[in-house]
UniProtKB/TrEMBL annotation:
It comes from Hydra vulgaris. This is Tubulin polymerization-promoting protein family member 2-like. Residues 117-144 are annotated as: Disordered. SUPFAM superfamilies: EF-hand. Residues 124-144 have a biased composition (Basic and acidic residues). InterPro entries: EF-hand-dom_pair, TPP/p25. The gene is LOC136092379. Belongs to the TPPP family. Pfam families: p25-alpha.
Length: 167
């Protein structure tokens, strides 16, 4: 159960970041994704249980507080059942990590292939990519020259001649 807890804690954070605390949104997501919710245990109940187990000063819960929350959810979902906690624990353990819903899939078509083929780019767009098609970042989008850093526009050819012409 601890591995499922940690996977939901880490959902949405950077890959190199380790997270050992769970907030209310991820606690609710765990209940939704693992199909714990039903008519007896609603999302409102899950929010109330989260607020019961967290401390007054903190906004997130630890694994031990999470276990207490699972016990409260089991009492609500399986009223009067002595094995309710074990049933809910098994349900959580059988689940996988969080799922990302509503994510846009990558389109695979000939039109998209033609539009994203960097070898066919012309003009200034061609300068944004190297030979392998990888983007150059800022180096490919900006001209780093003396005039640009001095504030002159591209069409102004007589740099530093204004004072000489307007004496």
């Amino acid at each position: 159960m601890e591995s499922v807890f940690k996977s939901f804690c880490a959902f949405g954070s950077r890959k190199d970041e380790t997270v050992d605390l769970m907030d209310n949104a991820k606690f609710s997501k765990l209940a939704r994704d693992l199909k714990v919710l039903d008519k007896k245990l609603t999302s409102t109940d899950v929010d109330i249980i989260f607020n019961k187990v967290k401390s007054k000063t903190e906004r997130k819960i630890t694994y031990h507080q999470f276990e207490d929350g699972v016990k409260l959810m089991a009492e609500k979902k399986y009223p009067g059942d002595a094995e309710g906690y074990n049933k809910l624990k098994d349900l959580i353990n059988s689940g996988s990590g969080p799922t990302a819903s509503g994510v846009t899939k990558t389109a695979k078509s000939d039109a998209v292939e033609r539009l994203t083929d960097t070898s066919k780019y012309t003009g200034s767009h061609k300068e944004r990519f190297d030979e392998s098609g990888k983007g150059k970042g800022l180096d490919g989008r900006r001209e780093f020259d003396e005039k640009a850093s001095a504030g002159y526009v591209g069409g102004y050819k007589e740099m530093n001649t204004y004072d000489q012409n307007h004496k």
